[in-house]
Structures are given as C-alpha cells and as structure tokens.
C-alpha cells in the first residue's frame, strides 16, 4: 500500500504561509520552516500592538492637551481637575482635537476649568 502524505493539503498550507511571508528578508520568505516562525511572530506582534495602539494614542492625546494647556497658562492636571469640577465630560481624544483645530474653543474650556477651580477652592475654604 502506498504511503499517504495528504500532499495537496500540505502544499496548500505551506504555500499559504510562504504567501504571508512575502517580503520578509532572506530565508524567512523562501523556506517554509523559517517562514512559519516569522509569520507566527508577526501575527503575535500585530495582536499585541493592536492593543498597545490604544495606550499610544491616549498618550499622544495627553501630550497634545498638555501642550495646549501650557500655552494657556495652566497645567494639564489642574485643567483636568477643573473640567471635572465644572462637570464637563469630554474625553482626551476630543480635547486633543479641540486643542489642535480650535484654539479659541479650547481656551474657553480652559477658562471654565479655571473658574470651576476657583469656586472649588472658595467652597473648600468655607468648609
């Protein structure tokens, strides 16, 4: 009896892996053994970085809002505290967009945050 190798399926699987490894350097794109490992690592990195992208963007938004706050004469943490005290619920993504695209609108928010901080401090002194 002939040896059964399931050749069509094996060839298809190997070709698929080599297709995914197209563009990789050297033997990683030519040899199945190394291509399989490279593709698995690539997929793992892609999975991890899809999650890391969220924190990267959050950090970028914070940097942008902080820069705009410093230009307006307030620190980022005081600004965020003031927004919370003023019951302004805007996320960092929207704040960063405002800071970049609409400086006047952002300065209005800074003013509201500063006013809320003053009233918060005044009420804390009374108590």
Tell me what you see in this structure.
Belongs to the bacterial ribosomal protein bL20 family. It comes from Opitutus terrae (strain DSM 11246 / JCM 15787 / PB90-1). This is Large ribosomal subunit protein bL20. By secondary structure, the protein is mostly helical. The protein has a single domain, classed as Ribosomal protein L20, C-terminal domain (c-terminal domain of poly(a) binding protein, Orthogonal Bundle), CATH 1.10.1900. Helix content is 78%, strand content 0%. Helix 1 runs parallel beside helix 2, helix 2 crosses helix 4 and helix 4 packs across helix 5. The longest helix has 41 residues.
Main traits of this protein?
127 residues, mainly alpha, c-terminal domain of poly(a) binding protein, 5 helices, 78% helix
Briefly characterize the structure.
This protein is 78% helix and 0% strand.
Reconstruct the topology from this structure:
Elements: H1 7-20, H2 32-72, H3 76-85, H4 92-101, H5 103-126
Helix pairs in contact: 1-2, 2-4, 3-5, 4-5
SSE run: HHHHH
Percentage of residues in helical conformation = over 70%
Rg over alpha carbons: 27 Å
Mean pLDDT: 95
Termini separation: 94 Å
Protein name: Large ribosomal subunit protein bL20
GO molecular function, one term: structural constituent of ribosome
Family: Belongs to the bacterial ribosomal protein bL20 family.
InterPro entries: Ribosomal_bL20 (IPR005813), RIBOSOMAL_L20_CS (IPR049946), Ribosomal_protein_bL20_C (IPR035566)
């Amino acid at each position: 009896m002939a040896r059964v190798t399931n050749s069509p399926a094996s060839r298809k699987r190997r070709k698929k892996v080599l297709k995914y490894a197209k563009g990789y350097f050297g033997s990683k794109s030519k040899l199945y053994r190394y291509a399989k490992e490279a593709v698995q690592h690539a997929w793992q990195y892609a999975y991890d970085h899809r999650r890391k992208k969220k924190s990267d963007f959050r950090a970028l938004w914070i940097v942008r809002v902080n820069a705009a706050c410093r230009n307006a004469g307030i620190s980022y943490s005081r600004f965020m505290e003031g927004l919370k005290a003023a019951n302004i619920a805007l996320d960092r993504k929207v704040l960063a967009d405002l800071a970049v695209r609409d400086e006047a609108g952002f300065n209005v928010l800074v003013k509201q945050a500063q006013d809320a901080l003053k009233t918060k401090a005044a009420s804390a002194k009374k108590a």
